[in-house]
Amino acid sequence: MNIIVTLIKKELLETLRKYRLLVMITMFVLIGVMSPVGTKYLGEILKQLLPSGYILKVREASEIEAYFQFFKNISQIGLIVLIFITAGLMADELEKKTIVNILSKGVRREYIVISKFVSSLAVWLISYVVSFMIFEYYTSLFWGNEISLFNILYSNLIIFIYGVLIIALNIFLGTMFKNKILTIVSCFILNLIQMFVAFFPQMSKMLPISLLSQCVYIIEGKIHIYDTVITLVLTLILILFLLIISINLFKRKEIEQ
Length: 257
Known about the structure:
Blueprint: H1 2-17, H2 20-49, H3 63-86, H4 88-96, H5 99-103, H6 109-143, H7 149-177, H8 180-197, H9 201-204, H10 211-220, H11 229-252
Helix pairs in contact: 1-6, 2-3, 2-6, 3-6, 3-7, 3-10, 4-7, 6-7, 6-11, 7-8, 7-10, 7-11
């Protein structure tokens, strides 16, 4: 246990040194601010910029619309940043062979995978919580809080879980390919495949990527929380499966000195 804690501290220190945490927090602070502020004032700004007499159809600024923008920004910007930040977790270490130094000290390989996952999870959690708190402050300032707190927390939970899946997926891909570029490209391709398959209604609800849209529907009251439980459980199982496969793959991998 002490070895895992030491490895996690090492990974977090590396995150600070390589400015990963700074990049994540900066981007998510911007998302937390621009989602409610943009919702509140975008319509007015566009009306000032467009020619007089031009009719502009903009959705009415509201708490629900602010959440729609928040989840949209997390999905389109936040998760992309997360992909780039976590793509090198295993890939960089294996490609540059810096991991040899740790292995030479007799550290068990599963500890390395677990420490990288936990440290990245901590960075993701901190970034998301900071973004959410800033967003909540401005949203309550502009519109109050009329949406159920449970729905709000659950909606954020399921989009957060999808981010955890991204971390587990990048650890697996990095272990398999030993190349950061291939890891990033493969991660994007797998997400695009999910988006394509999601066009088929019978399969879409079972895909993890559907969580990114279901969180909005829960806020809007279009679906019940129970409708997402199966997808959430399948996503958690997939995360565990990816971590187990990554550990087994890493154990069998030959690493040249």
